[in-house]
Amino acid sequence: xxxxxxxxxxSMKLYNALIKKNKEGKIEDIILLKEGFSCAAFIFSxxxxxxxxxxxxxxxxxxxxxxxxxxxxxxxxxxxxxxMLEIALLLIIALNANFWLAExxxxxxxxxxxxxxxxxxxxxxxxxxxxxxxxxxxxxxxDAIMNPKLHRKMMKLKKQEPYFTV
Length: 166
Fold this sequence. Notes:
alpha+beta; three-stranded antiparallel β-sheet; 3 strands; 58% helix; 15% strand
């Protein structure tokens, strides 16, 4: 029986692991961000930043695009030069987008806890959780991770409660 090299050594990707803890110190959310080039940021650029709720970065990118368009309209560059500058800008964005997202998540209360390898995001998340169990004696997960359906139901009930009672 002949085995393919890919079966023996599956391609592994590197992910940044970020966790968010609630007020009780329980892990509320785990996010894994792929290290390196972001195809979605390359294709969608400012929309990618808006989708990830990175408002300041999106505004800076839009202002840069407006400046770039005005600069190109002045006629000081050839069509080839304009295209190369635009591709260079998109490559810079795509290469740094996941790093910028990780920095933004840290500002929103997430904590960088390490790097993890995995053949895909699910595999990497399982490996990360197993490594957490080995490192921490008392690891506690919030209902958001343990029972997402119940957590969503409880969040809906909280939204229906009145703000003031008389």
